[in-house]
Each structure stands twice: as structure tokens, then as C-alpha cells.
Hints:
Helix content: 55-70%
Distance between the termini: 56 Å
Number of domains: 3
Radius of gyration: 35 Å
Low-confidence stretches: 330-334, 376-385
Structural class: alpha+beta
Shape: elongated
Strand order of the largest sheet: 1-2-3-5-4
CATH class of the largest domain: Alpha Beta
CATH superfamily of the largest domain: Histidine kinase-like ATPase, C-terminal domain
Oligomer: single chain
CATH architecture of the largest domain: 2-Layer Sandwich
Amino acid sequence: MVARKQFRIFPKRFGFFPYIWLFYLVFPVLNLDGYSGYKLMWGVALLLLFLVIYRQLYWAEERTYTAWLGLQMLIIVVLTVVYSPYNMYMGFFTSNFIGWYTDLRRFRRALAIFTAMLIALALLSLDQMYSTGGLLFMVPFALMMLITPFGIRSMNRRRMLEKELDQANEVIREMIKREERMRIARDLHDTMGHTLSLITLKSQLIEKMVVKNPERAQAEAREIQRTSRAALRQVRELVSEMRAVSVAEELVEAAEMLRSAEIALEVEGDAALPGVSDLTQSILSLCIKEGVTNIVKHSRADQCRISIVMTPGEVQITLEDNGIGVDACGSESTDRRDGNGMKGMGERLALIDGSLTLAQRPGGGTRLTVVTPRVVKDGKDGETA
């Protein structure tokens, strides 16, 4: 089934701005006062057509934009010459749209035509303006209409440059991530490939010797234990060498994400986590990022609470929301409990002997609890993380 495209009067990105301009159409409507019969009907028809063109200019593509703009200026000329000289001030609509031209040549051409139109209308309306006392306002308003396109064009160019800058920054971030992944892959291959191959060969050797030479098999098994502990140290060294993100830094990013999703954030505890290693902070930061992402995507909550508790032996971080709860997510419940995000958190926490729990929050919502030891020991070697 093909989804229907939602009808919009004006593009959503402009907000209420286009509607504000519609207020000024009240004045040309008032200028029709005193007319009747076919002349009134033609005047109303032209204003309605002007309104349609005003809307179309917000949606028009580059190849049709100039045609719509030219038709708008033609209507202004007719309404000014035939009905009221004060309809010349409808040129403020046109001056706004001229500023939207990104091509400098087209901008100058449209501005030149618009300037010629204003001069011609001013000369034709000079006598009427003088007799009604409107001549005093003609010059400053005409100058404002000629200056407006420059201001609008400058503002639009700044917006475009900011958008291009954001896109360029996003590309740079993606390139940095890609390069970081490639570096990690190379390091893992260079440092771990040989070690894992050695463990595989020794395991095969033990399998053959376990019956023929049990003592030799035990010695090889102890060698595998030492090799595996060395491999674990290498993994931790690689993780420690990565660009570590502290919990305090991640909370700033989480607050921005939740704010964009209109979810209030409350943080309790010391986010600095004094005495906690960079490795532990980096893994806890990744868990916070994943937990906040799940809240934004699945919870439908409007409040989030992150509490940080430190004891002499462990660090506990709890993320709670007042949403629909993990058991009420329907098909999303499985994704939230057993998805790649949760598996990734579990695998990272396993490196530092940490754990996580995802459960329904009493009173409604979801509670994610992450616990890590403050000191991680590596078996007999007594190495701390």
C-alpha cells in the first residue's frame, strides 16, 4: 500500500514565518473598497492568484521559480495601475523572494527588473500619491524594498554555509570513526593474531598428548593459561589506548540528546568518578550512551534520571525513565533486551568484570543498572586495570 503524502500549505522548515506575511494582504483587500461588479471580481481573483503564487514560491523548483516570481510582479503592476497606487507596496513580497536566489547573475537580473518595475509604478502613481499625501512615504518604502533582497540573500547564504559546515563536520567525524576502526582492526590483527594461533596449536597438541603424556599435556595447559592472560592484557592495553571518553563528558552529550527529544534529565552523584580508571570510565560512558539512545528510541518517556553511586569496591550507574517500560514495548522489547546494543554493553563490561541489569521500574518505566568493580584483578598475575 502506497503511503499518502501529507499535504502542507508551507514547508515545515519555515515554521510560522510564511503565515506572518499573509497579514499584509489585508491592505490590498481594503484597497478594493469602493469597487463593484466585474472590476471587484477581477480584483479579488487577482488577489487569490497572488496568494496561490505566494504559496508556490515556497515550493517552486529552480526551473519554475523565476516564472512564478515574474507572474507575481505582473499582478502587482495590474493591481497598482488599475486599482490603487498603494498596492505598489506589495513589492515587499517580491523583494523577499528575490533574496532567495543563490545564483548571483539571476539575483542581479531579478533585482534589476524589480527596480525598473518600482520606478515605473512610482512615476505612474506620482500624481495620485501627491494628492493623497502618500508621496512622503513612497521613497523610504521603495528604498526598503530594494535593500531587503540583499539582507535576505545574506541571511540565506549564512544558513547554507552553516548547513554545509555541519555536513563537513559530520563527514570528518565519520572519517575519524572509520580510521579508528581500521587502526583497531590492524592492532588486533598484529597483536592478537599470533597469540590466538599459538593457543589453537597448543590446544590441538594437548588433545593428542592427554592420553600418551599427561604431564606434558598439563604443562602445555598451563602455558595456554599464561598465553591467554597475556592476550587479555593486550586487549586491555588496546582499549586503554583508544580515545577515552569520561562519564562527565558523556553526560553532557546525553543531556543534549535528551533535550532534543524533549526529555528532562536529572543527574545525581559525582560524575567526575575520582579514582576510577580511564578504561572503566570509557566503558561506562559507552553504556550511558547506549542506555540514553534506547530511552529516546523506545521509552516514550519525558523524564530521565541518571544516578551515580560509588562504594569502596564498585561503581554503580542507574538509568531510569518514566516511559512505557521494557515489557510494554511490544516487538521492540526483544530489541531492547537482547539487541546488539545490550550485547555490546555486556561484552564491554565483561572486560572489566562488570555486569548490567535491565528491568521494569516500579511505578512504570525502565531501569538499567550498570555495576563495575573499582579495581579489576587479572587472576594470578595481580594486574590492575
